[in-house]
Write a structure and sequence with these properties.
The chain has about 180 residues and is mostly helical. Strand 1 and strand 2 form a beta hairpin. The model has no long low-confidence stretch (mean pLDDT about 80).
């Protein structure tokens, strides 16, 4: 038995996946996290709140005085999918706390744009590296990580953000 045949697949929570596909998925997550990092400027309160909550859910020890919360979050990029659901929740909470409908729309639209930027970064990486898919063993599951339920897929969460945005706009029209 050759070494390559031993490295063809890896086991994970959902079953067995092609090793090449798993590596491609991790590269996409790196690109997506780089997009998030570029969006994460000082004063990004929603991103900061989501990162803090993700770290709490992961039971990360926050007492380390040498690493910031962002350092602790970005060092575990393989679990980037956790961020989407938490970010949408944080956005929904912040939007519902706003009494001004225009501010609600601004928060939801800004968050939607951030999620879209992250998803586009992953999609663009895959599009530029389609030849890597040739190395993936086709007998294994190849569902993209953004479509997998983590509790919800990033795509489903984008639908939730869009629904909330339209709900606010419809409410504004009814009030006027």
């Amino acid at each position: 038995m050759s070494l390559w045949s031993e490295l063809t697949a890896v086991s994970e929570r959902r079953g067995t996946k092609s090793t090449a596909f798993t590596l491609l998925e991790h590269a996409e997550k790196m690109r997506s996290s780089l997009a998030l990092r570029a969006l994460h400027v000082p004063g990004s309160t929603l991103i900061d709140a989501a990162i803090k909550r993700v770290l709490q859910e992961r039971d990360v020890d926050l007492s380390n005085d040498k690493l910031t919360q962002q350092d602790l979050f970005y060092r575990h990029v393989s679990a980037l999918g956790d961020f989407f659901a938490v970010y949408i929740d944080v956005t929904a909470e912040a939007a519902s706390a706003q009494s001004n409908p225009a501010e609600r729309v601004r928060l939801i639209a800004a968050s939607a744009n951030n999620v879209i930027a992250m998803l586009n970064a992953a999609r663009d990486y895959r599009a530029r590296n389609l030849e890597l898919m040739e190395h993936c063993e086709m007998s294994f599951e190849m569902l993209p990580w953004v479509a997998v339920s983590i509790p919800q897929s990033a795509v489903a969460l984008m639908n939730t953000l869009t629904f909330n945005l339209f709900k606010v706009k419809t409410f504004n029209r009814q009030v006027q």
